[in-house]
User: What shape does this take?
Amino acid sequence: MKDEKRKHIFITGGTTGIGLALAELYLKEGHHVGICGRDLSKIPDSFKDIYPMLHSFEVDVRDMKKLSTTIKNFSKDGLDILIANAGIGDFKKTVLPDMESSRQILDINVFGVFNTFEAGMEVMIPRKKGHLVAMASVAGMVGLPRIGAYSASKAAVLKLCESFAIDLSSVGINVTAIAPGFIETPLTKSNNHHMPFLMSAEKAAKKMKKAIERKRVLYVLPFRMRMVMLVLEGMPRFLYRFFIKMFRFE
Assistant: This one.
């Protein structure tokens, strides 16, 4: 690939799962890819040898100063796409919420995205171009039982992206929110319940990459899960609550 066609793409939470799968797709095309995470030992040993265009950084998205410095250093030659993928789930899934765990979920899933976007905007706004992407979830479309903090965090991401997509278009920046259903990642391996329409991280990453290329403001996948969630989201809320209790999803 010619240098002028190479993009600079940065992905938070890029050491495993969807983030790593997306990084590999872009690396295979010859782009410069930066990934960050709290534990770089999760990156497969062969990755750096196979993909010399990979740049990895040990960063916690809650550390705004370090995150901003890292993204700026990576983006000296530009920043085309910034994917805020870092996030955690609610593994305990208890009826009574674990407040300490909930605070951590909100801190990483909401303020981690906010910090990432802020760092990206510092690079993109002066250049008047770029694409901000955030990993939300179908869990943000409705209030799901036993994972209130997780649902709330992803709902916040969806609405943040919806607002930013309107506001930042005036300075040439595109914004995309991606809301996946169940994807085979280290995050979902801890689930001990049925996961309908489960999709591999590799397949999901390919679909997400296409949605980013098409500059979709919102992309929900897989299609069957999207249809289910649209029905649940569109229900009168008393009916939704009755439906959840009737089928013992709580």
Observations:
- DSSP finds eight helices and nine strands in the chain.
- The beta strands are 8-12, 32-37, 54-58, 81-84, 130-135, 173-180, 183-184, 199-200, 218-221.
